[in-house]
Inverse folding.
C-alpha cells in the first residue's frame, strides 16, 4: 500500500516477545478500506488462533487519519469488550491517533500475555517490548511522566492503565496520557490481563498522497464550506452539553474554564481544561504542579452535576478516576446509584465499584460520542464511517458536509484506489454484525 | 548542465570507459583548452570528519552522492597521519574549527597532506578547510603554510556586531577574524579556463575567508554582491569593503597538485550550480595518475537476510530514539560552545538525518558490506547518541549544565555518521559497480 499508509502491520506476541511484520496489502484496503474495517478483520484473524485469553487488542488508524481532511484525528482500538462481550471499537482521540498514524505502522495486533509487566514503545517503524516492573502499580499520571522522561520527549502519546486495569476491574479504562479516554468498553482490563501497562507512541514518519494537489484543493474547499456551518461556534465541552439540553451547564463549568482543546486537525474543540487549583484567568504557565484537569467526556460531568457535585468537586473526582484508570462515566453512574455524593466517598469507593453500567451502551462503538444519538437514527452508521475513515466521531456527527461520498472521493484521491460506496456499505455491515 | 549528466558520466567512468575532460565537463562548459584531452577517471575522494570538523562535511557526502561519486572515504586525523591519503585522489576538508583541525592533524598530518598535494593530489577546502592551508605564523597553523594568500577579515580592532555575537568572530593571536555576513552571498566566477565563461552564482557563507592573492590567475571567483537572504553581522558598508572584489575561491598549486579554497560553502546541497562548479573544478584538477585501487578486500564481510535485518533494525531503533528527542530539543534555546564553535540543538538532527534519509535505500542493499565488528560498533555508537541526548533532555528539564553530554553527543554523532556512511557508500559502490557490469570491485561472497 503506497499512499496514505506506512505499509506495515505489526504482530506483537507478548507471550513469546516475538514481533513480526506484514505488509498492508492493497487488496485488503480495497476490501476493508481501513480503520475499524481492518482492525475488525485483524481481530477476527488473530482471535481464532487464540483460546486462553480474551483475544487480541488491535490498534489502527483510518485511511484519512493524519491528513488535511477536517477532523482527521482518529485512531481506533478494537478488542472484545469485558463490559459488553462484543468485539468493540474505542476511538483514540486527542493526539493519540495522529501519533499512531505516523508511527510507521498502520495496524498493530497485540496478542498473548506477557509473563511479567511490559510496555510497548512504538516509534518510527519499530516496536519494542520493554519491561515495566518499575511502572506497574503506578498511577497513569506518574507512569506517563516516567515514560516521557525515560524516552526524553513530552509529545509521546501514552495509552495506559492504572490500578483499575492491573486489578482486573471491568470498568478499567485505557487512558490517553493523563486524561480520561473514550474507552467505555473496559479495555483497561484487557491490558491488565495481558500484563501490558502501557503503549507509548511517537512517530516522525511521512505520508505520501497519490494526487497531492487535488487532494489539498478538495480539503481546502471543504474547510471553506465547513466554516459557514453554525456548529463551528460550538467550542468546548459546555457547548456540547448545551446541545444536549443542559443549558445551565455553562454557568456550572464556566467559572473554572481555562481553555478549550481540540483533537488534531479537528475544527471543533470537544475538550475543556478547567483550573481547579489555580486562577482560571491565568494567562501564563501555571507554577502549580497539578493546576486542573482536561475534561474530555461530557457524560460523567452531566451525571455528577445532577448528583449535586460542584464543577470543582467533579474535576477532582475525574482526576482521581483518570489516575486510577477507571471510566469516569461508569463511576458517575454507579456512585449515583449507590447514593455516593461526596468526592471523598467516591474516590474511596473506586477500587470496589462493580456492576453492569448503562453508559457502556449497546453499540459496538463507544458511547463516548453518543452526542445527539437519540435524535439521529443514522448515529451508528455515522460512527462506522468515522471509525473507518479516521474522522473524529463527535465532529462527524456535527458536520453534514463530510458526506460518505466526499470522504470516499478524498480517500480515492489520496490512495489512487477506487473505493466505491458498495464497499463502504459492506465494510459497515461487517463491523455492525 | 544537470545532475543527470554527471550521473551518466560517472556511470561510464566507473565502468572503466576511457574518457577525456572534453567528453565530460569540458563539453558542457563549451570550453576548449590545450589540455582538453586529459583523461578522466572515477576519483577516490576522502572527506575529513575528524576533530574540528563541523557537520558541513556531511554536505560534501550529499553532493558527491547526488552527482554519482560513490568512492568516498571518511577520514579522521589518525587516518591522515597514517597512509590514508596514499589511496586518494581528492581530499575534501569541510568547515569547522580551523585551529582544532590544525592541532589535531599536527606536524605529521601537515607533512602527509603536503606530500599528498605535492605528488598530484587535489585538496578541496571549504570555509575552515580554506583557512587551513593559508600562510600563518600561529601555533599549529604554521605547519600548513601551503598557499600565499591573505585574508581581508582580519582586524586588530573589532567592529561592532549587530547580530549572532557568538558566531561573529574568532580570536587570532592579538587580532580577530570577524565574519561580516552570514547566509547567502553572490560571487562571480572569473571565467578562466577551464571553468567556462564568467557567471554569477550564489552560495552560503558561514565564516569562510575573503582572500587576496598576488597572482590574479589563481582567482576562480570573487565576492560581488549580497542577496535578500544575506544576514549582516556588521555595517553593510564594512561588509562590502571586507568582501567585494576579494577572492571567494582560489586555485593554488603545490608541486604536482592543487588546492581549491572556497570561502563560501559551494558544497552546500541547496546550491546546485555551486555544487556543479565545485565538481567541474575537481574533475579538471584530478591527479594525472589515479591513486592505487581500493578494491574491497578479503576482510570484508557481508550482511544478508536476518543478520542484515537485525543490524538495520537495531540501528534504526537508536536513530529513531535520538531523532524524537532531538526534535523536541529544537524548540529549546540550548546551545553549546565546543572548542571555538557554537553548536545549537538544531545541529543534532543534521547528523541524524544524514543517516536516516539513507536508511530506506540502505535496507534495499543486499549484501551490506562491513569490516569485522563494524556493524556492532555502529549500533553501539548510535546507542551512545541516545544515551547522551536523553541526558541533555533530562538536564535541560532540571535546568542543569548540559555541556558534558553535549560534547560527548557531538563526538558520537560525528563518529556514527562517518561509520555509517563508510558502510553505506562501500555497499552502494559495490552494487553500483555490479549493476554497471564491471570488474574493478572483486569482492564476492
Amino acid at each position: 500500500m503506497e499512499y496514505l499508509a506506512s505499509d506495515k502491520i505489526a504482530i506483537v506476541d507478548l507471550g513469546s516477545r516475538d514481533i513480526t511484520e506484514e505488509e498492508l496489502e492493497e487488496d485488503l484496503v480495497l476490501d476493508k478500506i481501513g480503520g475499524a474495517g481492518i482492525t475488525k478483520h485483524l481481530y477476527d484473524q488473530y482471535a481464532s488462533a487464540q483460546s486462553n485469553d480474551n483475544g487480541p487488542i488491535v490498534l489502527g488508524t483510518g485511511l484519512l487519519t493524519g491528513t488535511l481532511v477536517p477532523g482527521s484525528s482518529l485512531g481506533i482500538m478494537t478488542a472484545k469488550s469485558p463490559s459488553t462481550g462484543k468485539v468493540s471499537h474505542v476511538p483514540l482521540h486527542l493526539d493519540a491517533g495522529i501519533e499512531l498514524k505516523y508511527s510507521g505502522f498502520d495496524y498493530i495486533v497485540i496478542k498473548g500475555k506477557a509473563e511479567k509487566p511490559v510496555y510497548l514503545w512504538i516509534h518510527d517503524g519499530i516496536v519494542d517490548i520493554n519491561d515495566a516492573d518499575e511502572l506497574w502499580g503506578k498511577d497513569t499520571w506518574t507512569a506517563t511522566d516516567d515514560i516521557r522522561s525515560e524516552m526524553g520527549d513530552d509529545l509521546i502519546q501514552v495509552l495506559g492503565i492504572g490500578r483499575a486495569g492491573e486489578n482486573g476491574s471491568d470498568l478499567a479504562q485505557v487512558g490517553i496520557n493523563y486524561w480520561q479516554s473514550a474507552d467505555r468498553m473496559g479495555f483497561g482490563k484487557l491490558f491488565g490481563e495481558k500484563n501490558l501497562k502501557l503503549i507509548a507512541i511517537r512517530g516522525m514518519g511521512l505520508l505520501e498522497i497519490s494526487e497531492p494537489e487535488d487532494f489539498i484543493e478538495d480539503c481546502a474547499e471543504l474547510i471553506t464550506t465547513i466554516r459557514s456551518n453554525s456548529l463551528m461556534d460550538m467550542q468546548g465541552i459546555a457547548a456540547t452539553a448545551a446541545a444536549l439540553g443542559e443549558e445551565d451547564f455553562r454557568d456550572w463549568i464556566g467559572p473554572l474554564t481555562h481553555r478549550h482543546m481540540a483533537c488534531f486537525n479537528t475544527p471543533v474543540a470537544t475538550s475543556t481544561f478547567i483550573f481547579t487549583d489555580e486562577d482560571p484567568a491565568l494567562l501564563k504557565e501555571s507554577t502549580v504542579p497539578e493546576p486542573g484537569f482536561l475534561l474530555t467526556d461530557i457524560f460523567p460531568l452531566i451525571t455528577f452535576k445532577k448528583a449535586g457535585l460542584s464543577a470543582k468537586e467533579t474535576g477532582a473526582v475525574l482526576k482521581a478516576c483518570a489516575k486510577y484508570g477507571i471510566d469516569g462515566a461508569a463511576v458517575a453512574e454507579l456512585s449515583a446509584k449507590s447514593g455516593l455524593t461526596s468526592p471523598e466517598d467516591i474516590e474511596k469507593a473506586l477500587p470496589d465499584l462493580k456492576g453492569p453500567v448503562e453508559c457502556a451502551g449497546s453499540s459496538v462503538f463507544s458511547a463516548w460520542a453518543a452526542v445527539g444519538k437519540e435524535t439521529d437514527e443514522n448515529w451508528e452508521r455515522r460512527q462506522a464511517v468515522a471509525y473507518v475513515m479516521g474522522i473524529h466521531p463527535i465532529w462527524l456527527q456535527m458536520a453534514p458536509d463530510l458526506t460518505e461520498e466526499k470522504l470516499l472521493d478524498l480517500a480515492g484521491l489520496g490512495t489512487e484506489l477506487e473505493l466505491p460506496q458498495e464497499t463502504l456499505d459492506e465494510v459497515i455491515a461487517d463491523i455492525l454484525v | 548542465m544537470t545532475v543527470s549528466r554527471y550521473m551518466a558520466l560517472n556511470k561510464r567512468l566507473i565502468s572503466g570507459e576511457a574518457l577525456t575532460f572534453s567528453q565530460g565537463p569540458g563539453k558542457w562548459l563549451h570550453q576548449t583548452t590545450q589540455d582538453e584531452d586529459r583523461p578522466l577517471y572515477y576519483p577516490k575522494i576522502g572527506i575529513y570528519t575528524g576533530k574540528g570538523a563541523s557537520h558541513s562535511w556531511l554536505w560534501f557526502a550529499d553532493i558527491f552522492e547526488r552527482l554519482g561519486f560513490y568512492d568516498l572515504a571518511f577520514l579522521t586525523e589518525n587516518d591522515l597521519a597514517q597512509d590514508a591519503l596514499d589511496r586518494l585522489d581528492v581530499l575534501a576538508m569541510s568547515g569547522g574549527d580551523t585551529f582544532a583541525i590544525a592541532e589535531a592533524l599536527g606536524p605529521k598530518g601537515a607533512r602527509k597532506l603536503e606530500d599528498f598535494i605535492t605528488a598530484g593530489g587535489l585538496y578541496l577546502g571549504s570555509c575552515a578547510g580554506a583557512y587551513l592551508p593559508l600562510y600563518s605564523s600561529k601555533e599549529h597553523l604554521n605547519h600548513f603554510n601551503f598557499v600565499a594568500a591573505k585574508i581581508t577579515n582580519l582586524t586588530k580592532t573589532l567592529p561592532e556586531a549587530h547580530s549572532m555575537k557568538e558566531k561573529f568572530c574568532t580570536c587570532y593571536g592579538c587580532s580577530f577574524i570577524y565574519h561580516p555576513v552570514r547566509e547567502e552571498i553572490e560571487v562571480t566566477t572569473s571565467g578562466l579556463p577551464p571553468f567556462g565563461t564568467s557567471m554569477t552564482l550564489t552560495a552560503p557563507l558561514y565564516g569562510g575567508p575573503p582572500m587576496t592573492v598576488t597572482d590574479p590567475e589563481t582567482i576562480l571567483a570573487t565576492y560581488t554582491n549580497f542577496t535578500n537572504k544575506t544576514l549582516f553581522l556588521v555595517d553593510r558598508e564594512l561588509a562590502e569593503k571586507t568582501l567585494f572584489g576579494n577572492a571567494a575561491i582560489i586555485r593554488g598549486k603545490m608541486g604536482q597538485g592543487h588546492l581549491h579554497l572556497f570561502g563560501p560553502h559551494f558544497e552546500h546541497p541547496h546550491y546546485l550550480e555551486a555544487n556543479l562548479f565545485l565538481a567541474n573544478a575537481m574533475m579538471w584538477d584530478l591527479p594525472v595518475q589515479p591513486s592505487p585501487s581500493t578494491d574491497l578486500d578479503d576482510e570484508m564481510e557481508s550482511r544478508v537476510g536476518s543478520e542484515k535485518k537485525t543490524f538495520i533494525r537495531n540501528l534504526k531503533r537508536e536513530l529513531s530514539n535520538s531523532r524524537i528527542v532531538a526534535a523536541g530539543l529544537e524548540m529549546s534555546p540550548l546551545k553549546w560552545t565546543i572548542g571555538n564553535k557554537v553548536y545549537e540543538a538544531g545541529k543534532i538532527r543534521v547528523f541524524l538525518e544524514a543517516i536516516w534519509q539513507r536508511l530506506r535505500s540502505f535496507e534495499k542493499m543486499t549484501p551490506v558490506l562491513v569490516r569485522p565488528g563494524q556493524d556492532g560498533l555502529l549500533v553501539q555508537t548510535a546507542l551512545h547518541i541516545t544515551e547522551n541526548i536523553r541526558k541533555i533532555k533530562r538536564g535541560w528539564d532540571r535546568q542543569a549544565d548540559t555541556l558534558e553530554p553535549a560534547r560527548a553527543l557531538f563526538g558520537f554523532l560525528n563518529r556514527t555518521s562517518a561509520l555509517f556512511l563508510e558502510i553505506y557508500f562501500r555497499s552502494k559502490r559495490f552494487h553500483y559497480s555490479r549493476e554497471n557490469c564491471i570488474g574493478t570491485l572483486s569482492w564476492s561472497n
Notes: Chain B has a mean pLDDT of 91. The radius of gyration of chain B is 22 Å. The CA atoms of residues 72 and 313 of chain B lie 25 Å apart. Chain B is about 40% helix and 20% strand.
